[in-house]
Amino acid sequence: MKAFQIISPLHTALKEIDAPACRAGEVLLRIRYVGFCGSDLNTYLGRNPMVRMPVIPGHEVGATIEAVGTDVPDFLRPEQHVTVNPYTNCGKCAACRNGRVNACEHNETFGVQRDGTMTEFVAVPWQKVVTADGLSVRDCALVEPMSVGFHAVSRAQVTDIDTVMVIGCGMIGLGAIVRAALRGAKVIAVDLDDEKLEVARSLGATCLLNSKTEDVHARLMEYTGGLGPDVVIEAVGSAPTYVMAVQEVAFTGRVVYIGYAKSDVSFQTKLFVQKELDIRGSRNALPEDFRAVVRYLQQGHCPTDKLVTYEASLEQAGEMLQRWADDPAKVFRILVKF
């Protein structure tokens, strides 16, 4: 069967690999759509420190069940539309023992530390299959990135009395915007691109800030009555936005970082103490975050067509990565269709 592989920075190829067997406790999936993630783009550009190359990318999955092995519960049936929880957990590290399996010390994510799903079939343990009845198989590929944003909102403990600023309106940031709005918070969206900000508005943001053309601090003070946002969720992963989060959050606020900066970041650490901040990381997502996204999408209110910038064939996958690298600000998601 065909698979797409990133061999080395800026070097990709199609290859033939053996089709997987469906063993006991496993489900064989026919891959229909795979989304390119920011981590895939960083792998392609040689900027992903966690990847093991060469690698088959892909962990944002829209699939149908092809077959089920023995010892698989009967709620999983052939032809169902599903997505995949693409993370592993060891069950032994501190994170796993604390029930936070999403942050497993020894996690291996599809397409990063192990080969991913940009191929025709994959076999996965049944526990990693997320059913998505009522969703199109294409929309199933949007569940994982949105779930990462949902998880960040849970980490921030957002409630209906909070004002939440989300920095970065890519797919993960949009997931955070949706979840914060669903919890009744006032949501401020910050990005460099007005088109992305308008999508953020359609998903629940009530204040839009273009950090390239506007004075973010002045606008925040105006919108929050001089207090600053109660919560800042950073979904970019750059040094300036890391610093912005700490500078702009309200006294006694919460800062949650999803993205990780690729260079060292210098902070005025007095703000940590002076504001008595809660500063938290947010990694991957938990099973309940996946279920929450599926339930949200099942309601049919999400303008999913606006979230998909390009659809491409497997043969065009390398070209699509280069197109994204050439103009990253204009891409929400690229889906590779099988």
TrEMBL record:
Keywords: Oxidoreductase
Chain ranges of the Alcohol dehydrogenase-like C-terminal domain: 172-297
Lineage: Bacteria, Pseudomonadati, Bacteroidota, Bacteroidia, Bacteroidales
SUPFAM superfamilies xref list: GroES-like, NAD(P)-binding Rossmann-fold domains
Matches recorded under Gene3D superfamilies: Medium-chain alcohol dehydrogenases, catalytic domain, NAD(P)-binding Rossmann-like Domain
Tree of life domain: Bacteria
Pfam families: ADH_N, ADH_zinc_N
Keyword Transmembrane listed: no
Domain Alcohol dehydrogenase-like N-terminal intervals: 24-131
Gene Ontology molecular-function annotations: oxidoreductase activity
Name of this chain's protein: Putative chlorophyll synthesis pathway protein BchC
